[in-house]
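$ ./design --mode recover --in tokens.txt
reading tokens...
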């Protein structure tokens, strides 16, 4: 399986995020990609290649042009106002009764306008790292178009919380959505996105909400208990032409492989019925029992089973890396999904 990886992920190295009332070191850090990269070498998964540059056009297929412009210039505007010693974090958001009619002029207002949490610092290298990650996903999509059965985009920063015009949850550009759209534009009639990250992929859901050509299926911790709290419930099924093309499978804290496997079988049934031409997997390994910010109980060996179950769907498959914060075990867990897929 070809692996697409860019060293530019290092340019996203936020200093702190707001968590439990405190500024703490970012969980989403460069060592995450390094350990996955190292493990892929050890298991000999496949050649590791650099992404090719795809430019703005494929990003504009799923993201708002004004939002992309904001992301590109936000750091420079922040530095003018607050200096470069502190990362840019938002502090104010809209509440019911306030207006979102116009984009604020102030950088602080714009950070709040385009975000939904205070855990996602914009830094000097955010734009370059995020575009390199999207390029990894796009390059992977290109391999599928050329006939590969599978590919792995080793992306960071992750993407599934980023919507058409918002960032949050450590995500800026929705790598999986950009790839799914590029598969559509390359001739796939229908594409399914399967999100196995512990957190609901609210950005991907929002982007494809009213689309019948892209199925979004997500297994995640129940938003009644867990981030992102305001999205990911079972009754969110898509709207308009996308009615029924969104399936959320929220699971309780403490879910182990037994409960997870059942939901994955439900997901497989829905994906099979949709009969897509390609599958994009948002691959987060934060369902692991040892994850510091999550509360499922998967074991490292369960990720082999997850890979095999995904292989059973019998589709050309692009894996796009998302979350997973137990860094010491992240390489094994992510590589296990991929080897489980290949050996099935
Ligand atoms: C990104 B991805 C924990 C706070 C967590 C944000 C989590 C973002 C997860 N107390 N805040 O889906 O792995
Ligand atoms: Zn996650």
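writing sequence...
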């Amino acid at each position: 399986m070809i692996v697409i990886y860019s060293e530019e992920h290092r340019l996203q190295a936020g200093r702190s995020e707001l968590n439990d009332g405190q500024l703490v070191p970012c969980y989403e850090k460069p060592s995450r990609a390094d350990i996955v990269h190292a493990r892929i070498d050890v298991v000999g998964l496949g050649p590791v290649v650099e992404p090719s540059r795809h430019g703005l056009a494929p990003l504009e297929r799923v993201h708002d042009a004004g939002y992309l412009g904001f992301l590109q210039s936000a750091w420079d505007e922040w530095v003018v106002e607050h200096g470069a010693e502190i990362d840019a974090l938002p502090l104010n958001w809209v509440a019911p009764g306030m207006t979102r009619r116009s984009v604020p002029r102030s950088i602080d207002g714009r950070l709040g306008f385009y975000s939904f949490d205070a855990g996602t610092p914009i830094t000097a290298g955010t734009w370059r790292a995020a575009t390199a990650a999207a390029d990894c996903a796009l390059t992977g999509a290109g391999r599928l178009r050329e006939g590969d059965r599978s590919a792995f985009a080793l992306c960071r920063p992750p993407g599934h919380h980023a919507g058409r015009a918002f960032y949050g949850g450590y995500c800026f550009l929705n790598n999986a959505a950009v790839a799914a759209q590029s598969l559509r534009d390359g001739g796939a009639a229908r594409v399914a996105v399967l999100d196995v990250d512990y957190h609901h992929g609210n950005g991907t859901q929002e982007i494809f909400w009213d689309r019948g050509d892209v199925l979004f299926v997500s297994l995640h911790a129940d938003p009644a208990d867990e981030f992102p709290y305001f999205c990911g419930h079972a009754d969110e099924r898509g709207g308009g032409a996308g009615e029924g093309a969104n399936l959320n499978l929220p699971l309780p804290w403490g879910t182990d492989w037994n409960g997870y496997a059942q939901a994955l079988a439900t997901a497989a049934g829905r994906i099979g019925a949709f009969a897509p031409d390609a599958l994009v997997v948002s691959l987060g390994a934060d369902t692991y029992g040892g994850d510091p910010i999550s509360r499922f109980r998967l074991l490292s060996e369960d990720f082999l089973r997850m890979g095999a179950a995904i292989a059973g769907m019998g589709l050309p498959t692009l894996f796009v890396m998302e979350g997973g914060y137990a860094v010491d075990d992240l390489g094994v867990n992510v590589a296990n999904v991929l080897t489980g897929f290949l050996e099935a």
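exit 0
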